[in-house]
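We close this part of the discussion by returning to an individual protein. Part of our work consisted of pairing the sequence of a single chain with a tokenised description of its backbone. The amino acid sequence and the backbone structure tokens for this protein are reproduced below.
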Amino acid sequence: MDHTELEVDRRLAALWQEARFGPTVERVRDQVLAGGSERLDHGRFRLLQAVAAHGPCPMRELADALGITASTVTRSVQRLEAADLVVRMPGRHDQREVFVDLTDEGRRMWRYFTDRALSTYQEIFATFTVDERAVLADMLERILKSADALLR
């Protein structure tokens, strides 16, 4: 079946507009973060994720990585610290700089939620073959890169 580029572009635009990505992603996130034996709100999970990805890092880097203000990171880190999920420590070279790292409990919680997320996504994508999932992953990466480049 031959399709013109314009026909395909119109179909993609219509499907994109009709897509429920936002609400669906939120429902999946809620299922992962609140549907098991442990619960964590999205903001705190994002912070755990950022600390896990960057290792011990300065709070200002966390703010940049998450696209939020330093004061918001400070409040979030305080809450996570009170829950024994992160620890703050002074910088090695500059005592004014504050680094954040996961505690053992923070690592356990992060693994728990990332394992739940992976399991959920495996169920969602089980309808596709491994090769189809690889192609889909490649295309989604390209979509995100293109959207990020356009929206900068």
Remarks:
- The chain has one domain: 21-127.
